[in-house]
Amino acid sequence: MKKTFINIGLILASLVLVLSSCIHDEFDEPPIKEIPIGVVLTIQDLYSIFMSDSVASTSYKFVDDFSVYAVITMDDKSGNIYKAAYVQDGTRAINLHLMSSGGLYEGDSVRIYLKGLTLMDYRGMMQLDSVHVDNNIVKVSTLKHKTPELVTIDQINTGQYLAKLIKLEDMHFIEEDLGKTYANKEDLITENRTLEDELGQRVFVRTSGYASFAGNKIPTGKGSVIGILGKHDDDWQLLIRSTSEVKFRDAIITVNFDEIENGVPVDLEDWENYMEIGSLSWMGYVGTTNSSVRIIGDGQENSTWLILPQLEINKGVLEFRTRAGNLTGASLKAFISNDYDGEGNAENATWTELPANIATATSSSFGNWTHSGMIDLSEYNGQVRIAFKYVTETGQSGQYMLDDILIYSE
Amino acid sequence: MKKGTLILFVILLAIGGFAQETDTVLQSQPEIPVITLNDSDFDDNESQDISGLLSSSTDVFVNTAGYTFGQARFRIRGYDNRNSHVLINGIFVNDAETGRPYYGNWGGLNDVMRNKVVTPGLLFSDYSFGGIGGATNIITRASEQRSGTSISYSVANKSYRNRAMITHSTGLMDNGWAFTASGSSRWAQEGYVRGTFYEAYSYFLAAEKKINDKHSLGLTIMGSPSRRGKSGVGIAEVYELSGDNFYNPNWGYQDGVMRNAKVGTFNQPRGMLSHYWEIDPTMKLTTSASYMFGRGGSTALNWYDAADPRPDYYRNLPSYYEEGEYNYGYLTEMWQNSETFRQLDWDSFYDANRKNLFTVENVGGVDSVNITGNRAKYIVEDRRYDLKRFDFATLFSKELNENSKIIAGANYMSSQTHNYKTVEDLLGADWWVDIDQFAERDFSDDYIIQSDVSNPNNVVEQGETFGYDYVINNNKANVFAQSEIKLNRIDVFGGFDLSYTEFWRTGNMRNGKFPAASFGNSPTHKFFNYAVKAGANLKITGRNFVLLNASYRTVAPFTRDAFVSPRTRQHVVNNLTSEEIYTGDLSYFYRSPYLQAKITGFYTQFIDGMEAYSFYHDELRTFVNYTMTGVDRVHYGGELGIEAKLSSTITATFTSGYGKYLYSSRPSVTITQDNSSEVLAENRTVYIENYHVGSMPEFAASIGGKYNAPKYWFVGVNANYFAESYINLNPEKHTAEGLDIYVDDDPQVKTILEQEKLDPGFTLDIWGGKSWRINGYSIGFTLSINNILNNTDLVTNGYEQYRFDQTNIDKFPNKYFHLYGRSYFLNVYFRF
Q1: Residue A376: which of A247, A201, A270 has the closest Cα?
Q2: Is B534 among the domain residues?
Q3: Is residue B801 part of a domain?
Q4: Is the pLDDT of residue B13 over 90?
Q5: B265 has which bridge partners?
Q6: B187 to chain A: which residues are within 8 Å by CB?
Q7: Do A77 and A191 fall into the same domain?
Q8: Residue A4 in 3-state DSSP?
Q9: A195 and A242 co-located in one domain
Q10: Are B311 and B341 in contact (CB under 8 A)?
Q11: A155 and A127 share a domain?
C-alpha cells in the first residue's frame, strides 16, 4: 500500500511540475520607450513661430523633434481648469491642452516633446493642443515652484504676461460681487468676478463651477491675488489656483470723520487727542464735500497726538490720506505701539514710526490729498495703538489734514 | 400569509393523527442514472453555483434543474444559494460573510466528494436542519470511500481545458485503518473566454481508525489552491463591436504576452477531525471539529490621476459620441478591427509609470521627510479576503423504534475574514501613495484624504498593505432537533432550530474621513433566531403519495449586506433586522415500475430582507454602495418531473419549473460612497413592488431521452427551453428622486421603469459514455456536449448598471451574460 501512495505521490508531483510551467504568471517588463529631445526651443520661440508671417492666425503643427523645457505653474487638481495646465519658462508662458486630466503637478519641471502637437491661438490664449501627458511630457524634477511676477494692470495690458503666474497687489472685489461665491458650485457654472485696483482698473477672476473653491465666498477687504493670467477674446482674466493665494485683509476700522463736529477738538470715544507739548488740538473740519480732522500750527513748540482706540490686529495693514498746507517745518508722523496703556502720557510708551507717505506742501499753498501707501503692520500682531503726531519747534508752523484711515487685519 | 402558515401547521398536525404502516417512498426510488458531470462551470469562487451538487439527487426535477437548467442560471424556486446548506461531515461550510457555499473550496476533488446525501427543499435531513433550499451533506470518511485506485483525465473547452485526477482508497483494512488520498490538477492556457487562464490543484487526505466497535476517529485534510484569470461582463455595444458575445475587457498584451488584470487566487486548506461513536445499534453521536484558513482574493487595476484604463469604459466607446462625429467613426473602426485597441494596453501603463516623477512631502506625517521617485499612476492591487475559521459540530441520532427517529445537533462557528489590499505590481513605478484621490480633490484637508491617519502620506511598495484593512468577525452557535415518525398511512416529521449570531468589525486603519468609526472594534451586533419546520407524506396507495411541507424561520443578516461601507467605516444599515421566511410546498408523487412523476407547488414569502451591491463609480472615483432594506419577496410556482421507462433500455424524462419571483414591498435604499461621509441617498423608497427579482429564468423545461445499452454504454439527449427571464434592477431608477426631473408624460419615464425581459432560449445537449471491464480493471469514458447547436446569442442573465444618468438614460446601458456556445467535456478513466 505504501508503494501505491508513493507512486501516486510521484505522479502528482510530476503533474504539478509539468503544469505549473505552462501558465504565465511572470511578465517581462516592456522595454523603456525613450522620448527624443531634438531641437530645444523656448516658449518665446513658440510665440515667434506662431506669429511668423507664414502661419499667422491659424495653427502650427510640429512635425519634427522639438522640445521645450518649462515649469508647471498651474495643474488641474483644484478643478478650476480641466484637462489643462499652464507652463512657463524664463521667457514666456503658455497653456497646455491635455488629452486627459491629471498627472501634472504645479512645480514639476518638465520637458515637453512637441512633435505632433499643435500650436494655436484659442480666443486670445496661446495653447499647445493634444498634449498626452505620458507621451509628450518628461518630468525632470519636482517642487520647482515658480515665484509669481508682481505686476500692475497696466503691465497686464502689454500682453507679455499672457499665461504667466502673476501677483497683483492692493486689489479688492467690486461692490456687486461681495456676498457672492467664486462660481456656481451647485449647478457647476463658471462665473466671472471683478477685481479692481486703487486706480479703478479692473480685471476678471474667472472660476469654474467644478473648482474645489467654487462655493467659497468672495472675500471682502483688499490685498494681493496670485493667479494665472488668462485671456478670453479681449478680456483678461485671472485664474486662481487656490483661495490661499487670495490674501485679503478686511478693514477692522474705517474712519472717514463724516460725523465729526466742525471746529471743535476731536473727542471720539476711546480716542485720545493728547497735547504733550503746547496747546494745539486736533480739530474737526467739515468741508463742502468732505469731512476730516486737521491741526493748524501756531508758531509755537507743539507736540500733539491723535491716538486711535486699541485694536487687535493680525498681519495688519494701515492706510490713510493726508493733505498739507503752508508748511514751514511742521511734521506729521504715524506711529504704532504695543505697550501704550491709554492713560495720557503717550511719551512714556514705546512708539515705532511707520513708513508712511505723508503729504507735503509749500509754505504758501495746499498740496493734494496724498495716499499713505499700504503700510505693512505684520510685525506688530496683537493689541496695538496707532497714533499720528504733529510736531513743530518754535517758529515752525503748518497745517495737516487727516482722513480715510483704514486698518486691515486677516 | 402568517395565517396561511398556521393553517398549514394545523393540517399537518391533524394528518399526523392517522397512523398505519407502509414503506417510505423516497428511500426506494429507483436510481436515476446520472453521467459524470463536469464541474468546470461551477467551481468559480465568484459564482458559487450549487447546481453541480444537486446532480446526485434522486429527485428527477432537482437533478435536471441542478445541472441542465443550472447552465442557464436557473435557480430552484428562485432561491439565492445561501438558502442551500452544504455540510462536510456535518460541518456547515457555507461562507460566514455571504452565507453562500463556495464550491471552489473543494474543486477538483470530485472523486472523494462523490459520497453525499442531498436533501432538496424542506424535506427531512438526517444531518442538519437545513435551509429552505435544502441541505447536502458530503461524507469524506475514508472507510466509506470505494477502495481501489482511479486515474482520470479530462479535456474540455470551458473555464479549464484539462483535468487530471488520481485517487486511491484502501477501504477499511484489517488493522482498523482506512486511507484515501486524492489529487488533481485543472488547467487552461486560455479557457472558453478569451484572456482567461486557469491553474488549479487539489489535494485530499483522509485517514480513519476504527478504535473498536463503537469508536472511530477520522482525519481529513483538503485544499484546492487555484489561480485564474477572470472574464468580464459587457453591454450589448461591446459584444456587437468586438463580434464576440464573450468579450472580456480584463486582459491585454504586455510586451506581446497576454495578461489578465483580474486574477483570483485562492488557497484555503481545511483540516477536519471527526469522532464517530456508535453508542448502540440505534444511537449514534458524530462529532467534528474543523479549521480552515488561507488566502482569498482577486487582483484588479487601480489608477491615480490618470485616464481610465478600461477599454470598455463608456467614454472609450463610439456611443459616447454622436454618429457622424470623428471619434464615433474612429472608435467604431478601431473597436471592430483592432484587438489590441479593445483590450488593456499594459505597455502604456509602464510608460506612464516610469516617468511620473513626483515628490511626496511629509511622508508618514513627518515634516520635511520628502520622497522623490516615480509615483505609480497604474497598479495592480490584490484585494484580499483571508480567512480563519473554526467549526465544531456534534450530531446525535437515535432510532426510537423501527418507525421513528430523533436527530439533534449543535454547531459552533467562529470566523474572521481579513479584508485588505496590497500592491501586487507597481508596473514600473517606484511606489504608490496611499491617499484617497477623490477626497483629495474635494477637500484640501490633508487629514481627510488619508487611508490611515496614523501613517499619513504613506508610500507603499510591492506587497505592502494600503487602502483599507479590517477584519469581519462572525460567531454563530445553534442547536436543533427534529424527529420523524413513519406510520402506516403517513410519515410526519417536525423540527426546530435555535441560533445565536454575533458579528463585529475590527478596523486596523483609522480612516481620515471616519476617524471615530474606522479603527478598533465596532459595536457587536447580536441576533437570536429560530426556525421550525414540519412535513408529512400521505401514502394514499403504494403508488400515490401526497407530500406537504412547511417552515417558518428568521435568518440573521449576513455581514456582507449589513455593513454599508466596511472598507472605510463600521456603520451598519439602519434598523438591522433578521429576515423572516415563510414557506410551504405541496407535492403529488406517482410511482410505478414504468413511470414516476412528481408535481409540486410552492409558496415562499421573504420579509425584511436586504440586498447590497457595490460598484466602482468612475466619476466619483470610488466604490459606491447600495443597500436595500425592508426587501420583501414572494416566490411561488410549480415544478414537474416525469420519468418514464419506455423499455428496459430507454428512459424518457420531462422536467419543468415555472415560478414567479417578485418583490412584494417597497424597500428603502441607502446609497453611500467609500470616500465621503456624505450619504448620497438615505432611506429612499424604492418602488419595485411586483417587479421581478430577476437574473434567472422563471421558466425552464427540458425533455430528454436516454438509451442504456446492455453492453455498458449509454447515450442521452436533452432539449431545453428557458424563458421568463428578467434582468436585475437598479433601485435608484425606481425612486421618486430618480425620476424627479421628468414630467409625468415624459416617455422616458416608462423606459426607465420598465424591467427588461430577456428573449427565451433553446439549447440541445447530448451525452454518453462507455465502460469496459478487463481482468478486474475498469476503463471507460463519458462525454457531454452542451449547447450543441452553438447558440451563442442566448442571454442568460443581465443587470441594469448601477450608474444612472437622468439626463441621458442610455448612457449606462444594461449588461448581459451569454450562455457558452458549444462546449464539451470528455472524461477518460481507469480504475483498479
Answers
A1: A247
A2: yes
A3: no
A4: no
A5: B227
A6: 19, 22-23
A7: no
A8: helix
A9: yes
A10: yes
A11: no
Within a 10 A sphere around the Cβ of A163, how many other Cβ atoms? 24
CB contact under 8 A, A31 and B259: no
Residues A405 and A272 in one domain: yes
Query: Are the Cβ atoms of B181 and A28 closer than 8 angstroms?
Result: no
CA distance A248 to chain B (A): 19
Domain containing B489 equals 369-580
A&B contacts, CB < 8 Å: 110
CATH code of the domain containing A96: 2.40.50.140
Q: How far is CA B368 from the centre of its chain?
A: 50
Q: CA B468 to CA B418: how far, in whole Å?
A: 10
Instruction: For A215, name the nearest residue in chain B, comparing CA atoms only.
Output: B442
Read off the CATH number of the domain in which A284 is found: 2.60.120.200
Which chain B residue has its CA at the smallest distance from A185's CA? B442
What Å distances lie between residue A108 and A85, A130, B641, CA to CA?
11, 19, 72
Residue A403's domain spans which residues?
256-409
Burial annotation B780-797 (CB, 10 A radius, 16+ → b, else e): bbbbbbbbbeebeebbbb
β A93-98/A84-88 pair status? antiparallel
Q: Across the beta sheet with B234-235, what order do the strands follow?
A: B234-235, B815-818, B795-799
Q: Which of A15, A31, A142 sits opposite B358 (nearest CB)?
A: A142
The string of pLDDT tens digits covering residues B805-819 is: 888 888 899 999 999
Q: Tell me if B260 is assigned to some domain.
A: no
Pick the closest to residue B623 from B817, B802, B462 (CA basis).
B802
ipTM beyond cut 0.85? no
Q: Is A295 in the same domain as A400?
A: yes
Q: A208 and A188, same structural domain?
A: yes
User: For residue A193, is it within any domain?
Assistant: yes
- The CA–CA distances, whole Å, from B730 to A59, A354, B687, B695, B805 equal 48, 69, 11, 12, 12
Residue A34, in any domain of the structure: no
Q: Which residues of B276-304 are buried (b: 16+ CB within 10 A; e: fewer)?
A: bbeeeeeebbbbbbbebebebbbbbbbbb
- Report chain B residues whose CB lies below 8 A from the CB of A72: none
Q: Would the CB atoms of A142 and B359 count as touching at under 8 Å?
A: yes
List the single residue in B with minimal CA-CA distance to A110: B357
Grid cell, residue B735, equals: 425612486
In this structure, are A285 and A403 located in the same domain? yes
Residue B525 class from Cβ within 10 Å (0-12 exposed, 13-18 middle, 19+ buried)?
A: middle
Query: Which of A141, A158, A188 is the last residue before a domain boundary?
Result: A141
b/e per residue B676-698 (b: at least 16 CB within 10 A): bbeebbeebbbbbeebbbbbbbb
**How confident is residue A6, by pLDDT bands cut at 50, 70 and 90?**
low
End-to-end CA distance of chain A: 90
| Digit-coded pLDDT (tens) for B710-767 | 888 999 999 999 999 999 999 888 988 888 888 888 888 888 889 999 999 999 999 9
Residue pair A49/A124 in contact (Cβ under 8 Å)? The answer is no
Run of H or E including A337: strand A331-337
How far B129 CA lies from chain A's nearest CA (Å)?
Answer: 38
Contact A108 B357 (CB under 8 A): yes
B434 found inside a domain? yes
Integer Cα distance of B404 and B339 in angstroms: 66
Q: Give domain status of residue A15, yes or no.
A: no
Pull the grid cell for residue A195. 477685481
Nearest to B292 by CA among B275, B268, B315, B310: B268
Phi, psi of A19 (to 5 degrees): -80, -45
* Domain co-membership, A264 together with A209: no
How many structural domains are present in chain B? 1
> Who wins on pLDDT, B85 or B11?
B85
Three cell numbers, residue A255? 474712519
The SS3 call for residue B315 is helix
How many domains, chain A? 3
Q: Is residue A24 part of a domain?
A: no
